[in-house]
Write a structure and sequence with these properties.
With 354 residues, this protein is α+β, with helices and mostly antiparallel strands. It contains 14 helices and 13 strands.
Length: 354
């Protein structure tokens, strides 16, 4: 049990274990193919050490595990099968309940009905059109995820202290354990919630999100103008202050041609969620994978060099690093094993000790 203070209300003890950073209804949504479950609760993210981490749900079939692992899960896999989307002791029970009320509204009124929400066209772009109360709830929901990721440093994601406090204060004032009170607060604070420069994008929901990123959640720790986050079929851009907003955009991974500054601040785009065309969505995914592949490569080589120096007392040769990295990348054909800490340890041992 922790004696730390709840990071949201700043009053009660942070006594809640296993609080979700990214809401469970998003992470564990079943992927469907013609109405039949393919697999459930397989999530991935990049750890702060640069390795991929996965959570394998109880309903994932042995056949799916064999396809992705190339083997059955052993005791070590089961022991390390922790959920990377949760953190312990940063919230109290009451604040966890308050966040849950917000998540309930977003899940029932938006996420589960996404394919049936009306679409509109503006300036050659398509948008999902939602009402004021739901717009307020969805914006606050993604604000809460940004805040939760920042206070837990999920995937090395951080926000400046002043920005975190601004988000915390807003959440603390609006959230309530009673859904009816929460809905009132959402409307009373609509103007302030919309004042946060948040842009929400999604894949076209009418195709059933057939191309979404397999429950991949990535908080880019390097991109800050705007901060850039991908959560399954959603892409979030966020400016935490006007100074950053007035700087040049540092990239949307190929989405620049359809994303404009006006989406972040123009009132006519409030209540609108941008639908990314299929071709752009595939291009964005490719650029995202490329960037994180580069991060994997750099982190893996840096980790290998540190271990090599610790064992041998000097840096490895460039050829030694290249030989390790070639084996590490090509030694396993299976998705779940390839970039894990366990797989890294196997090939680091081979090239450092053996």
């Amino acid at each position: 049990m922790s004696s730390m203070q709840c990071t949201l209300c700043l009053n009660a003890e942070a006594n809640k274990k296993g609080s979700h950073i990214v809401s469970q209804f998003i992470v564990s949504k079943m992927l469907a193919n013609k109405g039949k479950a393919r697999y459930r609760e397989i999530g991935s993210t990049i750890s702060s050490r640069g390795f991929s981490e996965f959570t394998i749900g109880r309903d994932v079939t042995p056949e799916k595990i064999l396809e992705l692992f190339g083997r059955e899960m052993d005791e070590n896999d089961l022991r390390n099968n922790s959920n990377p989307y949760v953190a312990d002791y940063f919230l109290c029970t009451a604040c966890e309940d308050r966040l849950q009320r917000l998540e309930d509204i977003v899940a029932s009124d938006f996420y589960n009905k996404l394919q049936n929400i009306p679409q509109v066209e503006k300036n050659e772009n398509k948008f999902i059109r939602i009402g004021e109360e739901l717009d307020s709830a969805i914006r606050l929901f993604f604000i809460s995820i940004l805040w939760r990721a920042a206070v837990t440093k999920f995937g090395d994601f951080e926000l400046p202290s002043e920005s975190k406090e601004k988000l915390r204060s807003l959440l603390d004032r609006v959230l309530s354990k009673e859904s009816s009170d929460l809905k009132v607060n959402l409307m009373l604070n609509l103007k302030e919630i919309r004042s946060h420069r948040l842009m929400i994008m999604t894949e076209n929901p009418t195709n059933g999100h057939a191309d979404k990123t397999d429950n991949a959640v990535n908080f880019d720790p390097e991109t800050t103008t705007p901060y850039f986050v991908s959560i399954n079929e959603f892409v979030i851009g966020y400016y935490d202050n006007d100074s950053k907003f007035n700087r040049a955009i540092n990239g949307y991974y190929g989405l620049e041609s359809i994303v404009h500054r006006s989406f972040f601040k123009n009132e006519k785009y409030y209540g609108h969620i941008l639908i990314v065309p299929d071709a752009k969505w595939l291009g964005w995914k490719g650029n995202m994978v490329k960037k994180f592949a580069q991060r994997y490569a750099q982190e893996s080589c840096d980790n290998f060099k540190r271990l090599f120096i610790k064992v041998h007392g000097h840096e490895p040769s460039k050829q030694k690093i290249q030989e390790f990295f070639y084996d590490f990348v090509n030694g396993s054909e299976y998705t779940l094993d390839k970039y894990t800490l366990q797989n890294f340890a196997v090939y680091a041992h081979k090239h450092i000790i053996e």
